[in-house]
């Protein structure tokens, strides 16, 4: 496929993240939104009209609409089913985080992606931001040593009772809605989790509303928190023998970082982002399609498996098991 081939996108779901994705496509070279489908016909029609796309009558019609890639923007309880159907229809899939509800589902999705020889990637945006890439490059040229500790968290307060994040039926909760970001940061710098210790609380709807994780990884230790009923900061700290890095809030939409060295030096990194941020992961995915790649070298299947394994372990400790499991 040529480098300037236009990638025609389809979206399943029409919520807030779907709208952000559609808006981001304006900042992705040679990419356009072609079709959309949602279980609610009215919002789908309005969404399609807003972005000059086609509203499909059902999911099968979306898959048959001539799209080159599918973005799954629904709640996580449906991710696996939509991904499998698209992959079996020969369509590459970029799936909103978390990739699936649990590790067993992800194993099945990845197995089908490999069997069908189709690209599948979890839409984990931070590693594609200019700041994150700049930080990686800086630490490679002026290192602080191997990262041995990651501390990160995010907690929001006053989430409405009817918000999807609090829905037991749809696989909600702080761990899967927010904590998956922190789990990414931990495995990206420290490797696979070896054991996970968790404290947390379940809310009235039955999902976790706050969780604190201490995890041992291949290359260090992580301390993570996530919540839906307490207001917390959103920065992150990476620690090594020769210094540390603060990724300033909101770290998952990174634009500033401070590197402090043991010798007293301080380096400030500043890399603003545009297009809302989702455009960077989308551009990467488009490049993978054009190159005929079946897996991202940045957001690998193994990394997604490590992240969801952490979430599974944390939920098991809290006694949170969804009906779909």
List the helices and strands and how they pair.
Blueprint: E1 7-12, H1 16-24, E2 31-37, H2 41-50, E3 54-55, H3 59-63, E4 69-72, H4 79-88, E5 93-96, H5 103-116, E6 120-123, H6 130-141, E7 149-155, H7 174-190, E8 193-202, E9 208-217, E10 220-227, E11 236-240, E12 243-247, E13 256-261, E14 266-270, H8 278-291, H9 301-318
Total beta strand runs: 14
**How many helices does DSSP assign?**
9
Mean pLDDT over the residues: 97
The separation of the N and C termini measures 40 Å
**Count of individual domains:** 2
Fourth CATH level, the homologous superfamily of the largest domain: Dihydrodipicolinate Reductase, domain 2
The CATH class of the largest domain turns out to be: Alpha Beta
Rounded radius of gyration (Å): 19 Å
Low-confidence stretches: none
Q: Summarize this, please?
A:
With 325 residues, this protein is of the alpha/beta class. Helix content is 34%, strand content 26%.
């Amino acid at each position: 496929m040529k480098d300037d081939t236009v990638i025609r996108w389809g979206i399943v779901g029409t919520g807030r993240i779907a709208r952000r994705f559609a808006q981001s496509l304006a900042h992705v070279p040679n990419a356009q939104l072609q079709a959309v489908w949602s279980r609610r016909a009215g919002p789908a029609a309005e969404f399609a009209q807003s972005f000059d796309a086609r509203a499909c009558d059902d999911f099968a019609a979306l898959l048959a609409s001539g799209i080159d890639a599918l973005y799954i923007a629904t709640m996580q309880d449906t991710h696996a089913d939509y991904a499998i159907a698209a992959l079996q229809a020969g369509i590459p899939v970029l799936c909103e985080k978390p990739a699936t509800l649990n590790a067993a589902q992800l194993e099945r999705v990845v197995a089908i992606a490999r069997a069908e020889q189709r690209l599948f990637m979890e839409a984990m945006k931070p590693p594609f931001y200019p700041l994150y890439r700049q930080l990686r490059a800086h630490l490679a040229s002026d290192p602080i040593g191997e990262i041995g500790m990651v501390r990160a968290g995010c907690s929001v307060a006053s989430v409405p009772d009817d918000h999807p994040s609090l829905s037991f039926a749809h696989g909600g909760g702080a761990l899967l809605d927010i904590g998956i970001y922190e789990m990414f940061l931990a495995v990206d710098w420290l490797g696979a989790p070896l054991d996970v210790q968790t404290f947390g609380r379940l809310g009235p709807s039955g999902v976790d509303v706050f969780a604190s994780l201490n995890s041992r990884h291949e290359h260090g230790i992580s301390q993570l928190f996530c919540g839906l009923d307490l207001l917390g900061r959103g920065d992150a700290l990476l620690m090594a023998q020769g210094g540390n890095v603060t990724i300033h809030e909101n770290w998952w939409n990174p634009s500033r970082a401070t590197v402090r060295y043991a010798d007293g030096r301080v380096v400030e990194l500043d890399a603003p982002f545009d297009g809302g941020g989702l455009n960077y992961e989308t551009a990467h995915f488009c490049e993978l399609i054009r190159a005929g790649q079946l897996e991202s070298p940045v957001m690998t299947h193994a990394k997604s498996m490590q992240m969801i394994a952490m979430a599974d372990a944390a939920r098991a400790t809290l006694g949170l098991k969804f009906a779909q499991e």
